[in-house]
């Protein structure tokens, strides 16, 4: 994740330029979100910079154990995501395939859409409508940045305590995460 304070001398100016572009896209989309999604964008996650790896490199990559807080942070981001902005930075090109979600709000979409993900390509994915798959280049490396535009956190008000309602809520909560 990029540090929003931006004081790391190891990160190239181009990365910060791409990060600012993502912020600008989010700010441009924000006035229309209430009409489209029924809620405002209230937050943007820090950008995550990604790089393709070979199978051999992936074997050497450290995979830290997850703790309760990191899982909670992930679930919070996942459940509040409206849009994902992905900007591809090369040097080599891959391919993005967008596939409609079966339970998404839009119907009669084409079965899939393939996009050449060359340097400078930006894809904005509506999280409740499309799944995306990135196929890296056959030769060489490819990199990209992504961030999520989030809806507000749910607000809870507990004004009365009804034990049966609380037990019903727990029963529903144990059915697993939302689709």
Which key features would you list for this structure?
alpha+beta, three-stranded antiparallel beta sheet, globular, 179 residues, five-stranded antiparallel beta sheet, 27% strand
Summed over residues and divided by their number, the pLDDT gives a mean of: 82
Distance between the termini: 26 Å
Beta-strand content bin: 25-35%
Structural class: alpha+beta
Number of helices: 4
- Rg over CA atoms, rounded to whole Å, is 19 Å
Number of strands: 8
Largest sheet: 5 strands, antiparallel
Order of helices and strands: HEEHHEEEEEEH
Question: Helix coverage percent of residues?
Answer: 25-40%
- Shape, principal axes of CA atoms: globular
Uncertain spans, ≥5 residues at pLDDT below 50? 173-179
Task: Describe the SSE topology.
Blueprint: H1 13-37, E1 43-44, E2 48-51, H2 55-60, H3 68-80, E3 81-91, E4 94-100, E5 113-117, E6 122-126, E7 130-135, E8 142-150, H4 163-173
Antiparallel strand pairs: 1-8, 2-8, 3-6, 3-8, 4-5, 4-7
